Amino acid sequence: IPLEYIQVSNEIISYAKYSLGKRLNDNVYITLTDHISFAIERYKQGLNFKNALLWEIKRFYNHEFLIGKEALAIIKKRLDVVLPEDEAASIAMHIVNAELNSRNMNETLDITKMIQNILNIVKFHFNIELDEYSLHYERFITHLKFFTQRLSSGRYYEDNDNDLFDMIKLKYPNSYECVKRIEGFVKQKYGTQLTKEEMLYLIIHTARVVHENC
Q: Per DSSP, which regions of the chain are E strands?
């Protein structure tokens, strides 16, 4: 890999760390540099790359996607190579992967698809379109990121307060039924049962994002 690609990758990672204000897994220095090298090779060969998760990445990882856009500007400035927006999404996923401290990009992609599937369940159950610019939607997406990461790693919230769960279940019956659908989907995909604590938080976030009883 040419030295200038490594330097560009280091500049992008430094910018990402500063912008996010957090540490990133050091593997990103290898994976991102490797990706940039392949992306530029595709560009030189005239190959058009399409990222199938562009829409999801833009909405679920907006901050990281904006870093990806800045990365394209850095690549253009340093290497005189103009890469498409789809590459900004791919770079964003490398940043997300490093944030999640994951060694496996497939796990990060699986988390992204899982978030989309859960959102689709909510939309279908309530027969509504969600306001993607609302604060409740943003908080719901943030919760789903950590929720799906826990599913992937096999770590869950423990059951602590069954009385609170029963109270919330009665207060938001429609959201509870929606979360039961999510539970069924999770059981089918991961072969695991959600704890009441996990369901409790999902019910609350779902109720807020669809404004149940408001």
A: none
* 101 dihedral zone (left: phi>0; alpha: psi -120 to 50; beta): left
Range of lowest pLDDT (94-98, 106-110, 166-170): 106-110
Dihedral class, residue 213 (left if φ above 0, else alpha if ψ from -120 to 50, else beta): left
* Residue 20 CB partners (closer than 8 Å, separation 6+): 63, 64, 67, 95, 99
CA-nearest of 123, 118, 121, 114 to 210 is 123
Q: Could you tell me the CA-to-CA distances from 24 to 14, 82, 138, 162 in Å, in that order?
A: 10, 26, 22, 37
Total-model pTM: 0.77
CA distances from 84 to 34, 47, 76, 123 (A): 17, 11, 11, 31
CA 39 to chain centre: 22
pLDDT value for 154: 65
Q: How many angstroms separate the CA atoms of 88 and 65, rounded?
A: 6
Q: What is the pLDDT of residue 148?
A: 84
61-86 residue pLDDT tens: 889 999 999 999 999 999 999 999 99
Contact (CB, 8 A) for 64 and 95: yes
Query: For the chain, how far is it from start to end, CA to CA, in angstroms?
Result: 57
